[in-house]
Design brief:
Order of helices and strands: HHHHEEEEHHHHHHHHHHHHHHHH
Number of helices: 20
Mean pLDDT: 79
Strand order of the largest sheet: 2-1-4-3
Shape: elongated
Largest sheet: 4 strands, antiparallel
Radius of gyration: 34 Å
Structural class: mainly alpha
């Protein structure tokens, strides 16, 4: 009697598909980061007010002393004029004299000359509110003729207070981002991935595939996975024994009379899979932190490079040339590093990662003793060449991107959020030169850490990932906007000596970049041109006087939108070349705008707008096709 065909496997419930819980972990870590930011900011601001208020008072005392010194000098000059017989209220040229005295001391905001009856005879500036705190009598031959009243400027005190607030908020935001990225890596490696593997094995069993059950490496469901493997083990073993028995029966059945019966008995098992070889993966759990740390170290120097290059030549017409050349050197070196990572003998091994970061860290660290701008350009080229080679080569091993495509966007977003503000905060804490030395030393530690763990096996070079042209245009546009905004505009002009403000802007960019990938449930290709448009708008906005912090957050959201649109393609070869190409284009735009005596930000914004239009046109064409 023929047996009925086995029933088709049931559909996989959506709940089972989402068993990995990655998006829930994203939102949970985002909430933790917000709470940490609030706690750190409150604590840091309280400590800053309690401890650093003395610094504010010192500056206020300094302003008072400067005002007293200026007041005595002005009183002596007026006393000498009165002793010569010139009446105090009949003097000429007092206005220009007081303006010159005021310009000579930035710690003073107002000077007034009063008569004996406290009548104001002269004031500079005339529109200022009279609130002088330092009074010095004008004496002629020991007789008081009037009074010089000087108002100490509150500008320096206000700047110190604002600086303290920027340090507190930037360090709090950076620390919250560091902890959030660390927690995300831990939850990803120890919870989400084991759960996702378990979900995949369960789904495979529902389709009749019993060969993929293996206990998770770690995590809370390890025991469940072990139990599942224990239950499917006897089934696979029985299947092998059945196959061995049928092979023996076929060998004994010389006449072939049992062949049809054996085939009928085995027919229900044809659609089931009990055993198959599994592709080896050598990028084991916990290896994700290495490329993230390496890329964060390289990005930590980006807020500091342009201003350091400008300071090598001083304020002259060659400064824009050296700024552009230095930024272009890193980008060109990075593009060559991407090519090196594709070479068969230079791919993937631990020694490649070690050597690349060793040279890159040395090139960054040696900046502490550099004076020559040409040597600095050379070290930036080496840092880009070997640093990007080391990071890119780490993705050219078995299991790095094919089975784990989320690694690319997570590494990129984490490095942006952690690296750039950390570099600026180091410069604020210990000075720019020592910050380069510290970053270089950390890169050397990352280099030696590459030698830890199991050996890697480089996979054969395959074809480059096919990235839609619209996504590449969007990536170039936001990279151009990021480099023009942070590396050039803020580093060399807006926050030239204020690394706390630079760190706050970089932290806002990193936080904004994390939001779209964290909040959105899946990839949206339309976010790429929208993100590029938002980043372009941020360039024009800062040129029109919109607060830097608002523009930085908008730029970060734009970058995050492009990364969310790219998805798993965010750090593939073409996409990585697009990010570096945008930085190179920013350097060329800076050079061209300087040669034509045009403002750099609008020119960069126009270039980004053209790229954004190309991204939008390619996206629409792809949707229509």
């Amino acid at each position: 009697m023929p047996k009925s065909e086995p029933a088709p496997p049931p559909a996989i419930p959506p709940r089972l598909r989402d068993l990995g819980g990655a998006k829930a972990s994203d939102r949970r870590v985002l909430l933790i980061a917000i709470v940490l930011l609030a706690v750190f900011a409150a604590a840091t601001l309280w400590i800053a007010r309690a401890i650093l208020e003395e610094r504010v008072e010192d500056v206020a005392v300094l302003a008072e002393e400067a005002a007293g010194t200026l007041a005595n000098s002005v009183a002596d000059d007026f006393g000498a004029a009165v002793a010569l017989g010139i009446p105090l209220d009949k003097m000429r040229g007092v206005g220009p004299y007081l303006e010159s005295a005021l310009r000579s001391d930035t710690l003073v905001s107002e000077i007034a000359i009063l008569g004996l009856d406290e009548t104001v005879l002269y004031r500079t500036p005339a529109h200022a509110k009279l609130q002088g705190r330092v009074r010095v009598p004008i004496l002629a031959e020991g007789v008081r003729q009037g009074t010089v009243m000087v108002t100490p400027s509150s500008q320096i005190v206000d700047m110190v207070r604002a600086h303290i607030r920027q340090v507190a908020i930037a360090s709090s935001l950076n620390l919250a981002l560091v902890i959030a990225v660390f927690l995300r890596l831990v939850t990803l490696e120890r919870i989400n991935l084991p759960q996702a593997r378990m979900a995949a094995s369960t789904a495979a069993a529902g389709r009749g595939v019993f060969a993929d059950f293996s206990p998770p490496d770690a995590g809370p469901i390890r025991r469940i996975g072990q139990r599942a493997a224990h239950l499917t083990g006897p089934l696979r073993r029985s299947h092998r024994q059945l196959m061995e028995l049928t092979d023996e029966v076929r060998a004994l059945d010389t006449s072939g009379s049992l062949a049809a019966r054996i085939a009928a008995v085995l027919a229900p098992l044809r659609g089931l899979v009990f055993d198959r070889p599994k592709a080896p993966t050598t990028l084991a759990r916990g290896r994700l932190w290495w490329p993230l740390a390496a890329l964060a170290g390289l990005l930590a120097t980006r807020p500091l490079v342009a201003s350091f290059a400008a300071d090598r030549v001083g304020p002259n017409e060659l400064a824009p040339l050296f700024i552009a050349a230095t930024l272009a050197a890193f980008a060109v070196g990075g593009l060559l590093g991407l090519l090196l990572s594709r070479a068969p003998i230079l791919r993937g091994s631990k020694f490649v990662s070690f050597l690349g970061m060793l040279i890159a860290g040395g090139a960054i660290g040696v900046t502490v003793v550099l004076r020559d701008p040409y040597v600095f350009i050379g070290t930036q080229f080496l840092a880009g060449l070997f640093g990007i080679w080391a990071v890119a080569a780490c993705f050219e091993v078995d299991g790095a991107m094919r089975r784990l495509p989320w690694r690319g966007p997570l590494v990129l977003l984490g490095a942006l959020a952690v690296g750039m503000p950390s570099g600026a905060l180091l410069a604020e804490t210990e000075g720019r030169r020592l910050a380069f030395a510290t970053i270089g030393g950390l890169c050397l530690l990352v280099a030696f850490a590459a030698l830890l763990g199991p050996a890697r096996r480089a996979r054969p070079p395959g074809p480059l990932a096919a990235v839609p042209a619209g996504l590449l245009f969007a990536a170039v546009a936001v990279s151009l906007a990021l480099s023009s905004f942070l590396e050039i505009a803020l580093s060399t002009a807006v926050f030239r000596e204020n690394y706390a403000g630079l760190a706050l802007a970089a932290a806002l960019i990193g936080a904004g970049a994390l939001l779209p990938a964290t909040v959105l449930a899946r990839r949206f290709g339309a976010l790429a041109p929208a993100g590029a448009a938002l980043a372009t708008a941020a360039l024009f906005a800062i040129f029109e006087g919109v607060p830097v912090q608002v523009c930085a957050a908008a730029l970060g959201l734009g970058i995050g939108g492009v990364v969310a649109g790219l998805g798993a393609l965010a750090l593939t070869g073409p996409a990585a070349a697009a990010w570096l190409g945008g930085a190179l284009l920013a350097a060329l735009v800076k050079l061209g705008a300087s040669m034509l005596a045009l403002p750099g930000l609008p020119v960069a914004g126009a270039a980004a707008a053209i790229l954004t239009a190309g991204a939008l046109a390619a996206f629409v064409r792809r949707r229509v096709a």
